Amino acid sequence: MKIDVLSLFPKMFAPMQESIIGKAIDRGSLSFNVTDFRDYTTNKHNNVDDYPFGGGAGMLLTAQPIFDAIASIQEKDDQQSAGHVVLLDPAGKTFDHKDAERLAQYDHLTFVCGHYEGYDERIKTLVDEEISLGDYVLTGGELGAMVMIDATVRFLPDVLGNSESASGDSFEDGLLEYPQYTRPADFRGMKVPDVLISGNHAKIATWRLKESLKKTYLRRPDLLEGRKLSNEERDLLDDIKTELNED
Ligand code: 4GS
Questions:
Q1: pTM
Q2: Which residue numbers delimit the tRNA methyltransferase TRMD/TRM10-type domain (predicted)?
């Protein structure tokens, strides 16, 4: 996969050199390039922003540097394309696990990050979709882009090693993850549930499913509303509700 980013603060992307993402770049599974669109300004002061027509507070990123930076990415690409272009914007669709999985299907993604300001609306003609990291205002789109890139590349083959696996994680099957334990079986009097040491794999699977359902029911009931339940899950959830009412 090839990922391009347009940003006025390329150094903010230093974290991309670390850990799993950094290794994917070193290995060649991922190519990652940040373009400072200030380098593409045609005005003598290298300004990237201007006052909004009609007045009002704040400045807006002008169209020209971003149009020309996107053109430079297209020129470097074999297919003369910037791929699927994502604009980071709080007015966009809120990013989630499914978006990460969907973005991972593209072979080329370009993220456009604003900083401080808003955008001239015409920039959006370059953009395939607007995505928001969440319902809060950031000082810039850079951190949002990094979060989206991180969550997306986890779905690429060759990015996650054996130490981390994409399947079984929270959200993978629409439920939060069940509690997990490693050695020792008794840590300062806090014991691992007996079932996990029983060796009975069917019982362990049922226990894990029930714990996942219980945690999701208590913490994120919204996730259960958008999800079909199997007969086993429905029975377990009935048990959970009964047990909780008895407490
Ligand atoms: C977000 C967000 C954001 C909006 C950038 C105001 C500076 C800021 N970007 N998800 N101008 N939430 N952007 O808050 O993506």
A1: 0.94
A2: 1-225
